[in-house]
Amino acid sequence: MSKQQTLNELAAAINGTQTEEGSVFTAELISGEVDVLQVVVEDREEFPIYVTLDDSQILCVTHLWKESEVKQGQRESLLDALLTMNVPMPLSSFSKVGDQYIIFGALASSSNIGDVSYEIEVLSDNTLEAIEAVAEFLN
Amino acid sequence: MSILKQLWTAVKGASTEAGEAIVDSQAIRILEQEMRDAKKHLNQAKENLTSVMAEKMGIERKVKTLRREIEEHEGYAVSALDNGNEGLALEIAEKIAELSNELEVQEELLASYTGNVSNLKKTIKGTERNIASMDRELSVVKTTESVQKASAAAAAKFSGTNSSLRSATDSLSRIKAKQQKRSDQMSAAMELQNEGEGGDLKAKMKAAGIVTGSASSNDILAKLRAKRGG
Fold first, then answer.
1. With contact defined as beta carbons under 8 Å apart, do A92 and A126 qualify?
2. Distance between CA B97 and CA B92 in Å, rounded?
3. How far apart are CA B168 and CA B166, in angstroms?
4. What domains are there in chain B, each with its CATH number?
5. What is the pLDDT of residues A46-82, one digit of tens each?
6. Fewer CB under 10 Å: which end of chain A, C or N?
């Protein structure tokens, strides 16, 4: 199965899924050099989840904040907090791409659709909790 | 420089430019070129291995032939001795010595070829592993780049050009407000439903002492006592 097919299938499976709180997932495929599936959770439109496939893994990424949003003099405390949270936080990890802080989860490319939707749900929860946890370091 | 370090540089390079492109595409092109080179080297190494293995097989054949010849000549020498032909036996012995020297040379050569083959195989395996991990890492970088583009497009669509609206903490507050609204709506809906079922009226009557609502344990005990007494 091609990557695009798999992503399309994933989109179909995710579209309309509900969280426990009743928020609905919407998935949309964005074609490009690497196809990206954009998943939006209702009421959390500010933090879409981007899902990509390659040969070795399925990557779910959400953008958090930019370097410019970090309070002056608080960067070290922020990084310390993120590193410390990395392990206790279920399934997701923090990272940085350029000046963009991200939260992500990686799954084996053999994972089934149920695994992926669960990952997305947890990632979305973790996103809000993480921002809340480090809000004191952000502008 | 290690591949990971190169990728790190490629990704980090862009962070200084206040900008759109998060990944230094030039650095990626260089990496891709390096990967193509590595693949070319790998193919050369594989060709090398094939020819070294062929040569090694040739030497193995030579060693086998030499051993057989030595054995045969030893047989001849014994026969010559048995026939009392010392002269011939000595000549044969000289031939055996010659063959043995040649065998020694070939055996040494064979050992070095065997070492070469195993080294080449190790190199090839290592290179293949390197290329595979480079492939993986590069694909992650490209993925990140695509996600970056998609996210930038989404952010622009979501909040227009007003970037101050895009701060993570503001977004979180907005989401919390939305969630609060949703939960308020849900409680309101539940209230409406209760009213519809007369729950509201019952509650009002209960508050006014018109209906007691639930039987109390004292009432029940009193009733039971009356029953026993009567």
1. yes
2. 9
3. 6
4. 3-161 (1.10.287), 173-229 (no CATH)
5. 899 999 988 788 999 999 999 999 999 999 999 999 9
6. N
Could you tell me if A118 and A25 are in contact, meaning their C-beta atoms sit under 8 angstroms apart? Answer: no
Residue A32 and residue B149: Cβ atoms within 8 Å? yes
Contact A65 B140 (CB under 8 A): no
Task: Measure the CA–CA gap between A119 and B135, rounded to whole angstroms.
Answer: 25
Q: Which residues contact A116 (CB under 8 A, 6 or more apart)?
A: A10, A14, A51, A58, A60, A107
Strand pairing report for A49-53 and A36-41: antiparallel
Residue (of A124, A131, A114) closest to A58 by Cα position:
A114
Give the nearest chain A residue to B146 (CA atoms): A34
For chain A, list the domains and their CATH numbers: 3-137 (3.30.1460.10)
Contact assignment for A46 to B22 by CB distance below 8 Å: no
**Cβ-based interface (< 8 Å): residues of A facing B:** 21-22, 30, 32-36, 38, 43-48, 50, 52, 54-56, 59, 61, 63-65, 67, 69, 97-100, 128, 131-132, 135, 138-139
User: What are B143-180's pLDDT values in tens digits?
Assistant: 887 888 887 777 666 554 444 456 888 888 888 888 78
**Which parts of chain B have pLDDT scores under 50?**
14-20, 160-164
